[in-house]
Design a protein that fits this description.
The protein is an all-alpha fold. About 85% of the residues lie in helices and about 0% in strands.
């Protein structure tokens, strides 16, 4: 794959990541999954009234957001390639 083709693919992936409701769905997934994971990871600190790690909180919400976005983008790119090739 040429550098130009890779650049075009990245641009298409970025457009997919911000279009068709992907950010909203990814945010909903991050809210649910991130909340559950934060309770699992820092529930003891929350119950005991100890300070929470804000870095962990942010990462625990960011990871499910990025995973959901990646899944949506990769699916959209796969469908797009099928349409282009007629397969």
């Amino acid at each position: 794959m040429t550098a130009m083709a890779r650049g075009a693919r990245w641009r298409k992936a970025c457009r997919c990541a911000v279009a068709d409701g992907v950010p909203r769905r990814s945010a909903a997934v991050a809210l649910v999954v991130g909340s559950i994971l934060n309770l699992i990871n820092q529930g003891d600190a929350l119950i005991a009234g100890r300070p929470l790690s804000w870095t962990k909180i942010l990462l625990t919400f960011a990871v499910p957001y990025l995973v959901a976005t990646y899944g949506a983008v990769s699916y959209q790119l796969k469908i797009s390639r099928r349409r282009e090739t007629g397969a």
